[in-house]
Specification:
Strand content: 15-25%
Order of helices and strands: HEEEEEHEHHEEEEEEH
Number of helices: 5
Length: about 300
């Protein structure tokens, strides 16, 4: 149960961070809009027409308000209205004389205040989720490891012939999480930029390109064992470690591969994507424990192979 709660809280924090990023972009856009209204403000009576539901779960519902300037009918969508305004009622609006589609209820900061409120709500969710995560992790550490969980020493060790190749990858659940959650931040920024006409044209493809690059880079996470060398491909550029130089493999929590380089210095590297701590899903934990057992067995079988350069 606690594993599911930890995952739920982590997902909540990640989504809240994405929402905060989107609101920060909206604050920047609204600041320019409100500045234009302040500089060229005109007042008019508008009519609250109807409430418009968002097209997606990540969008905002809007209040559609119309007003007339001469023979021109202007329709604006606002995130909020003063309390107690019924449908069909009149309300005071301030608009930009040069861009009438930029408007707000009189004596307010319009959607800028709503975006700021959204940031505060997002921060509240992040703080709450982080607090819950900390308490759950502390409790699990206090109670000690789950004795019923499989450890690397419980896994039947496969036999590998010297020179045999081996490829280890994170579990499908972990790979899907990495390639969806992390690239989502620049992707949301790129999509939000479509709503800002002042954004430079090259910024949008750069943000979306970064998201695609992150997804491809995270998909390549693996440990490739061949020719007596352990090739580790993680978030950072790959490392190539001779099996004969490996001095240890810590398989609890985040696995850490330890070795000595040619000068005799102790080196270590975390194997990103193979975390098997107390908060991991049972299926992910089982997968990662078995992958580490396979890696340990392969290193033992290939220690005497001539190493390549580190």
């Amino acid at each position: 149960m606690s594993s599911a709660l930890i995952s739920l809280l982590a997902a909540s924090a990640a989504l809240s961070l994405i929402g905060i990023g989107a609101e920060v972009i909206e604050i920047r856009r609204q600041a320019r809009i409100q500045h234009g209204i302040d500089a060229r403000s005109e007042r008019v009576a508008g009519t609250y027409q109807y409430y418009e539901r968002a097209d997606s779960k990540f969008g905002d519902d809007k209040y559609v308000v119309t007003f007339t300037i001469g023979d021109r009918r202007v329709e604006v969508r606002l995130r909020s209205l003063p309390k107690g305004i019924p449908r069909g009622a009149l309300l005071c609006l301030e608009y930009d004389a040069e861009q009438p589609e930029n408007a707000r209820p009189c004596d307010t900061r319009g959607d800028l205040d709503d975006a700021r409120e959204g940031v505060l709500i997002g921060v509240g969710f992040v703080v709450g989720s982080a607090t819950g995560l900390g308490l759950l992790i502390w409790r699990r550490r206090r109670d000690g490891p789950d004795a019923s969980r499989e450890t690397v020493n419980d896994v039947p060790v496969p036999a590998y012939a010297r020179g045999e190749e081996l490829t280890l990858r994170p579990s499908p659940i972990a790979r899907a999480t990495y390639t969806l959650v992390f690239p989502a931040c620049p992707a949301v920024v790129g999509v939000a930029m479509f709503q800002d006409p002042t954004v430079r044209p090259w910024a949008i493809p750069c943000a979306l390109g970064l998201a695609a690059l992150m997804a491809v880079w995270l998909l390549r996470i693996r440990v490739q064992c061949s020719d007596g060398t352990v090739h580790v491909y993680g978030i950072l550029p790959g490392r190539h470690i001779p099996a004969s130089a490996v001095t240890g493999l810590t398989a609890i929590g985040t696995p850490v591969l330890q070795w000595r380089d040619r000068s005799g210095r102790r080196r270590s590297m975390s194997l990103f994507g193979f975390w098997n701590g107390e908060g991991a899903y049972e299926r992910v934990h089982r997968h990662n424990i078995r992958e580490m057992a396979r890696l340990r067995a392969w290193i033992a079988a290939n220690r005497e192979v001539s190493p390549t350069s580190v």
